[in-house]
Amino acid sequence: MSEQSTDRQALLDRAESFRRELRDFCENDFPESVKRKVADGQLLEAEDFRAQVKALGTRGWVAGHWPSEYGGCDWSPLERFVFEEESQLRGAPWLIPQAINYVAPVIIHFGDEAQKRRFLPPILSGEHWWTQGYSEPAAGSDLAALKTRAVRVGDKYIVNGQKLWTSNAHWADWMFALVRTGDGERKQEGISFLLIDMKTPGITVRPVITIDGHHHCNEVFLDNVEVPVENLVGAEGQGWSYGKFLLGEERLVVADTGMSKRHLLRLRDLFDSGQAWRSDNEADVRDQLDELELRLHGLRMICIEAALRGHPTPSEGSMIKIRATELQQAIAELAVEVIGPGAAAYDPERAMGPEGQSPVGPAASPGITCEYLHGRAKTIFGGSNEIQRNIISKAELGL
Q1: What is the pTM of this model?
Q2: What domains are defined for the chain?
Q3: Best exposed site among 109, 148, 320, 370 by fewest CB in 10 Å?
């Protein structure tokens, strides 16, 4: 066996051992109340995610992919993938990524020592929650068109503008934002990366109710908001590079293979337990389930191979984002077909709390419908799939 094959097998063996440890943790030490809500597809609230962070903190797993010097575990990319996959499969929710997976790696790689000492410990402890200030009314997939402007006046930036689709801003203590501090020949030039305290005067957060009837997103208005210059990460005008770095860190995480597998297992259980809406096309639905499982297997292999090499290339990252989100939507669409009339009786309030169940169809019907509706955005956020196809066509086909 070659040295390269030996190293590869050692990484796989280590990851498999970690997977067994994760399985034991999720089954025995993860909050049962949170797992029940996840299993029923109920909407999670801030205290559920705080309970998740607290439980993970007992093992030092809140941010295991961080370097150990900052409180992480030095996980390899494969171990990080295994953590995301196995914990989601076993009933843990998606660990809200804005702080742990997004802004923290930017601070670790590009921030100064004072910023690392100030911001990283409260993220690890769950004391500080973050939101991402990227999209704007006229700058979504074309993020470089953003207009929120920060003008330096002495030792402060004065920020004016609007951010949109700002997930969980109503919970957040801090926002990391891309703002325009200058203008260049290319619109990607002159963008900077600022850390903004959400308690600062001049910030207004208004809810945006999404198609599932719930409050996940917000619009954030910034009116003469004063931000200390010390809250600028890295160099002024280099925010576009830091934002691309952040999105690159996201690609293996966004695969959500554990969640997709859990949803497929739930679909099979609905059939096997007799809870599915019975119709003449059950055999066709089971064939679709088989096809979706094959697609998921292919996605997992792509992710594992990329993780074994370290990280996906930009084109692979775009491909993973496309394949993962379209697979998740296909699973959700099939689930709505399987519960039949239960989907038509959707009431957003029934997807929340201990009484969240449907008067029609399986008890989990509100959660299934909520997941379907909310999941329509998955092919848009994080860089729309149309943009991802453009990236692939330019990088790989020279178009």
Answers
A1: 0.91
A2: 3-95 (1.10.540), 131-237 (2.40.110.10), 251-397 (1.20.140.10)
A3: 109
